[in-house]
Write a structure and sequence with these properties.
Organism: Kribbella koreensis
GO molecular function: methyltransferase activity
Protein name: Class I SAM-dependent methyltransferase
Number of domains: 2
Helix content: 25-40%
Keywords: Methyltransferase, Transferase
Order of helices and strands: HHEHEHEEHEEEEEHEE
Strand order of the largest sheet: 3-2-1-4-5-11-10
Number of helices: 6
Radius of gyration: 17 Å
Pfam family, one: Methyltransf_25
Shape: globular
Length: 256
């Protein structure tokens, strides 16, 4: 998982997701700087803008607006749902006009119907129970116009990299940021352990907890929500999804 961890003490009863605090919100953009690079964000925006077709879009877990703000700049009417008030505050500081509702993505309703609902950067895994993940799909379906699409970006758990007896996989190994993911194969629980090298040479540790979902499991959740599978790609460039793909971008459609 690539998402930065949160303080479990910040959890709210309404959601199994960890609520990201002000400290994480303040440093989120800098710690995820590579996700803001044009070569990363560009294909994401191209993909989503084509599906929205200058219509309306709802982003679940909109965060600090990495995707929502530039997508709105392309003429899409973007609304966001965000569980963390500090993350939403970072977004509002950058774009006060983009509407954001504070709430969880499994149950929170906003006014209107949308041409597109989307979840990026593995964020559906922040919801840590299967039942609540199903409700995310159902909530997406409730917000969609007939013919509208639900899109998620999600990593494929690299479990086959692990030899017997091992439960950790390195995910990021750079000079300033190391990430190791640990997996519980019985519960599909995953924890991301982040080690950030600080300017003074000290190390900052942060952890986040998730529940991974297989692509076929996503399809079943979509079916339970009344959505139909439309496409699955390996990335935002629409590369073919194969048995070796490490991530997927999947699209489901609400029947007309």
């Amino acid at each position: 998982m690539d998402s930065i961890g949160a303080d479990p003490a910040g959890c709210q009863a309404m959601s199994s997701s960890e609520v990201w605090d002000e400290d994480i919100a303040t440093r989120y953009d800098a710690s995820s700087a590579e996700m803001f690079a044009p070569e990363v964000i560009g294909p994401t925006l191209d993909f989503l803008a084509a599906l929205a077709d200058e219509g309306s879009a709802l982003e679940f877990a909109i965060g600090t607006g990495r995707v929502g703000i530039p997508l709105a700049a392309r003429g899409v009417a973007v609304t966001g749902i965000e569980l963390s008030e500090p993350m939403a505050a970072q977004l509002r500081a950058k774009d006060p006009g983009l509407p954001v509702v504070i709430g969880d993505m499994a149950t929170t309703r906003v006014e209107g119907e949308f041409d597109l609902v989307y979840l990026v950067f593995n964020t559906i895994s922040n919801v840590r129970t299967q039942a609540e993940q199903v409700e995310c799909f159902r909530n997406a379906a409730r917000h969609l116009k007939p013919g509208g699409r639900f899109v998620i970006e999600l990593w494929v758990p690299p479990i086959r990299r692990m030899p017997p007896g091992q439960n950790a996989v390195p995910m990021r190994l750079t000079d300033g940021h190391l990430t190791f993911d640990t997996y519980d194969l019985a519960t599909q629980a995953c924890s991301s352990h982040h080690y950030f090298t600080q300017p003074d040479g000290t190390t900052l540790y942060s952890a986040g907890n998730f529940r991974y979902i297989w692509p076929a499991e996503c399809d079943l959740m979509a079916q339970l929500a009344g959505l139909e599978s439309e496409a699955r790609y390996a990335d935002w460039h629409r590369a073919p999804f194969t048995a070796d793909s490490e991530s997927h971008v999947s699209v489901w459609r609400k029947p007309v």
